[in-house]
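Please, structure for the following, as tokens.
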Amino acid sequence: MKVSVIGGGPGGLYFALLAKKAWPRWDITVYERNRPDDTFGFGVVFSDQTLDAFKAYDTVTYERIRRRFAYWGDVDVVYKGKVMRSGGNGFCGCSRNALLNILQDRGRELGVQMRFQREVEGLEEFADSDLVVVADGINSRIREKYKDHFQPSVDLRPNKFTWLGSTKPLDAFKYFFQETPEGIILAHCYQYEPDRSTWVIETDEQTWKNFGFDKLSEAEMLPVIEKVFAEQLDGHSLIVNRSLWRNFPTITNRTWVKGNAVLVGDAKATAHFSIGSGTKLAMEDAISLFNALRSKESVGQALANYDTARREEVEKTQHAANVSLAWFEHMKRYWEMEPVQFAFGVMSRSKQITWENLELRDPGFIKEIHRWFAKKVAEQGFAIDLKNPPVPMFTPFRLRDLVIENRVVVSPMDQYSAVDGVPGDWHFVHLGSRAVGGAGLVYVEMTCPSPEGRISPGDTGLWNETQRDAFKRIVDFAHANSKAKLCMQLGHSGRKGSTQLGWERMDHPLERGNWPVVSASPIPYYEGVSQVPLELDRKGMDRIVKDFERSARYADQAGFDMLEIHMAHGYLLASFISPLTNQRSDEYGGSIENRMRFPLAVWRACRAVWPQEKPMSVRISATDWVPGGLTGEDLMATVRMLKAEGCDMIDCSTGQTVPHQRPVYGRMYQAPFSDWVRNEIGIATMTVGAVTTPDQVNTLLASGKADLVALARPHLANPYFTLQASAWYQQMGQHWPPQYLSGRDQAFRNAPRERAEQTELRIKSRPASHEVKDSMAKKVA
């Protein structure tokens, strides 16, 4: 086989040497536009897992890299004069130039040919090649020339950054956060060889302009940055190497393959430097492509397999990188946090590192956060044992006069099992068992204020006393047999009503027995399938406001502790808020203030009849996940209006406004919106969405992303989620029904052993290269 590799960076070189090692008879040539010793940047970063992969695929390369790298296990967050250190993080830094020399030398030993200072303009130059590996970097000429085929997407992020070096030695990865008259500026710093460290300087565009960096040359900007970080540099200088200020481009491609050519590395996809993944991704791409070719299938099939198999892992890494970079783009949002919480937010920002990950790495770091969180709760007037404090999920929370025992919430989940809107035995068992299961707050499914406001014939309603009394039976049981508080969620289905049950064809019209539906505008949910809703007029609005008001009174009479108004998921009130579903030209359309008129009228009517000592919340869709839908400005304006009207908490959900939405899923994927609302507006929030473990609950709370955490599907599978978590964390303060006390005692006895066994397994499963930590750390020191 004849193989041409375009680009002599780490990805291209590593693939070339792996392929030549496996297939010595292959004719492999690397074409690089620069000279052999040209390199831009300073150090590169690898995790323990990546090092282990290198060891598995070519021991010679691994050993040469290992001898050159600087290993660190500690991460320091330096913020407002305080240093917060988290240990047990396995990473190494290596000079980029040294890495390229190692890969070049190893490639030559194996017989890889290299052509430096060779520009490549197009794939036609390699018409006689069986395989062309395109590894020409972030500014790939090949990707750009054939962009109609690869269909790249480039998202230029708003923050400015530049790569610098220094002679300053470092004993840990350092985040230096500095507040200056010009604004907040950050240095990401790590050592990569003796007396050499990388300094990536990052800030927002306004701060960048305030410093005058937009007008300064490399030489002129250096003394400015050295002055900002004078204490941290401790007399050492900064070094430039084409250190231009840039905006990070997040790059994706619809396909990575064109005939016998394939993209790898930054030409294929980029991941933000804040998770140290650029070189790692490129070299792991090389491994994945190599494995695809080992399948002995045709080149075309191998490349197709590579595109499919590798894409999931790359997209997962990109998602983590995007979440991480967003945290740094919003540093101002967290600037009033106390140092310990700020540091935890930095460490857990990408959602890949959680409470228990950090506890395994550095128990002392988590212990400090643990005590700090409990102390903050105690300062609110709660009796907290600060010598043996509860983890965040088992601390109480207050909204008005309502005290919720813990931070775990059972999400509202439609059961489609009511008859004429009346909750029956199914609802009694469903809600009662989750209350007994220990959750602090249990939501009832979205309950409708009128028959025509239902989603389906199986929805619960609250428009008559029979329904009220059926709910009261459930509430009374929960109050008598648990410490759970119950929340009634009221909502009107709007254009998504008169549809089939959830386990039938969700959001599709009933086959018979339909009732008319209404919305902000006459736009059907499914064009040509769903009913065309009537555009709600002022008379209809007044009638629905009265319906909500009546339901709120019934909810109070039934004994509910809290009331939520559903303004999300494309239902009636949400249809007024989103520009995708509200195309009115009257005073209820246009600006976000106009679009909120009707939802606020419903809110005011309910708040007026709901007891003042009881809290009320609103569920919102923070985004529609569709271009042209709700904007960030809409979100902030909506929440500000609700807060001004006395809303106590925002229940942050997303989407479900239109069927062609494109959500970005992932663990805790809606938490960033809760974080945004809570820390920008200063209102309590609840997050929901792909939260599955107690560990994630603690992470979200400790990092300040939410005040309450709602779980849906985990509670369907396990009503006793919270009781089991109390045993896991040895939280004896959690209420267990007396009928279950023998089970509690056994659970509390077994949990420490189970936890110790799991911890031991996790330690054993850590990468083997982690074992070099001590010796390498000493070498760096």
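The mean pLDDT is 95. The radius of gyration is 29 Å.
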